[in-house]
């Protein structure tokens, strides 16, 4: 039995032991029947599997499995005669325990069970993959080295800048040696822009040397997580499904927006008083609020609210700066922002760094022209630069936070932000929204890439 199987078996036994103990504490009858049902639903939702995935997916499966178990218990409650409140409390407790247990076990045993991964490629995709595995220890993947393919025969036109940080980079001619040195059991091909012949060349070189070979495919706007793969008499056929928000999904999203909007607007009362007092002490007597027209759903004009973080005549000042300084003009036209923006006020640096400037947009959320999560509310002057992404971005209400805020925040370029907003539209679901909210809060707390 492998170490990974031993870890999963330990998790299975511990979960059953705790579930049975909680039922005893709540004086719930039919304990044996419930434990059997508990395991049935865990397996139905693919809980106990050896493949590598992130904690967000595990949390989703835990909530789905235990939520379904709770519904079954409620449906048959006329027979079982249990207290609904006790069942709900038990379900909530076991969900929390399962999440904590699974993460803790994977962190503790990571050293012994994590796949020993070799990444082929040293470009942006490789660097992003390494970063994700380092920040998400739940995935049980330990990247030990990356392979430079720039000088490999047949890859002369596939140049990759070396961007991988804190990991050994080796030449492709040392492929066999590095596999043996690190006892590699998994390879990730992080070269999605390679041709079919280039990919086949590497796969053949890896043949019979490692048990697991994964690759990042070259994708386009048609590929989503709703896409399916089928064998069509020897031909690999991908069926793409353009994601559409169902009525139930829209209702759930709006309910979450209303609850979040109410809580957010209530927080504006003390926050506005504090910001106004500090602004007055700094000699700034102008309004602490700032309004601006942005592109809303279906391309309609919406007026968004923000705390003012710049001088009152910021737009006119930007025009002046771009006329007088060519570097500033190029930087703004490229990234739609300035890294060291001279227009930001003293308190503006603080409210931007903490993202407090976005809080008044909870008013927009309550009004219904924005959502808690969605694409960035783009400026009308940015419409032309949005190019092909404009059509997909305006399919959603803009959000206070979104994909790009949760994946690098202001560290990303304008094009990268558009790609992530397009991804959000094509792959939206309620769970994605909840994940983005959590990751945004985490980014703000640790001040990573804050604006």
From TrEMBL:
Species of the source: Amedibacillus dolichus
Taken from the UniProt entry, a GO cellular component term is: membrane
Q: Establish whether keyword Mitochondrion is in the entry.
A: no
Metal-binding listed as a keyword: no
The record, for Pfam families, names: Bac_transf
Q: Where in the cell is it found?
A: Membrane
InterPro entries in alphabetical order: Bact_transf, EPS_sugar_tfrase
As for membrane topology, the entry says: Multi-pass membrane protein
GO molecular function ontology, one term from the record? phosphotransferase activity, for other substituted phosphate groups
Which keywords, in A-to-Z order, does the entry hold? Membrane, Transferase, Transmembrane, Transmembrane helix
According to UniProt, the name of this protein is Exopolysaccharide biosynthesis polyprenyl glycosylphosphotransferase
Family label: Belongs to the bacterial sugar transferase family.
Residue ranges of every copy of the Bacterial sugar transferase domain listed in the record = 253-445
């Amino acid at each position: 039995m492998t170490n990974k199987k031993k870890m999963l078996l330990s998790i299975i036994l511990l979960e059953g032991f705790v579930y049975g103990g909680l039922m005893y504490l709540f004086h719930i009858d039919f304990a044996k029947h419930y434990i059997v049902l508990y395991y049935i639903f865990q397996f139905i939702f693919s809980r106990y599997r050896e493949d590598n995935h992130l904690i967000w997916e595990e949390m989703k499966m835990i909530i789905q499995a235990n939520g379904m178990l709770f519904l079954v218990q409620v449906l048959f409650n006329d027979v079982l005669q249990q207290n609904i409140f006790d069942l709900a409390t038990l379900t909530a407790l076991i969900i929390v325990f399962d999440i904590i247990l699974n993460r803790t076990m994977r962190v503790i045993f990571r050293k012994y069970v994590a796949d020993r991964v070799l990444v082929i490629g040293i470009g942006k995709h490789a660097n992003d993959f390494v970063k994700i595995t380092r920040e998400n220890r739940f995935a049980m993947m330990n990247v030990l080295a990356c392979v430079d393919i720039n000088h490999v025969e047949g890859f002369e036109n596939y140049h990759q800048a070396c961007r991988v940080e804190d990991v050994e980079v080796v030449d492709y001619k040392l492929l066999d040696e590095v596999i043996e040195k690190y006892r590699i059991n998994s390879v990730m091909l992080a070269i999605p822009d390679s041709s079919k012949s280039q990919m086949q060349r590497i796969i053949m070189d890896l043949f019979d040397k490692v048990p697991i070979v994964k690759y990042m495919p070259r994708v386009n706007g048609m590929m989503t997580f709703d896409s399916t793969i089928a064998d069509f008499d020897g031909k690999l056929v991908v069926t793409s499904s353009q994601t559409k928000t169902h009525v139930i999904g829209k209702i759930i999203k709006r309910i979450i927006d209303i609850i979040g909007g109410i809580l957010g607007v209530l927080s504006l009362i003390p926050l506005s008083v504090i910001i106004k007092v500090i602004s007055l002490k700094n000699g700034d007597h102008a309004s602490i609020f700032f309004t601006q027209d942005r592109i809303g759903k279906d391309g309609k004009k919406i007026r968004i609210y923000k705390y003012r973080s710049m001088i009152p005549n910021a737009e006119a000042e930007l025009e002046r700066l771009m006329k007088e300084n060519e570097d500033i003009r190029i930087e703004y036209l490229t990234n739609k922002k300035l890294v060291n923006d001279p227009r930001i006020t003293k308190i503006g640096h603080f409210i931007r760094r903490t993202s407090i400037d976005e809080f008044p947009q909870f008013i927009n959320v309550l009004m219904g022209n924005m959502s808690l999560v969605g694409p960035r509310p783009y400026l009308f002057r940015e419409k032309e630069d949005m190019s092909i992404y404009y059509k997909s971005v305006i399919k959603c209400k803009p959000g206070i936070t979104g994909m790009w805020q949760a994946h690098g925040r202001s560290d990303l370029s304008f094009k990268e932000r558009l790609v992530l907003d397009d991804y959000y539209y094509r792959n939206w679901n309620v769970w994605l929204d909840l994940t983005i909210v959590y990751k945004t809060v985490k980014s703000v707390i640790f001040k990573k890439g804050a604006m």
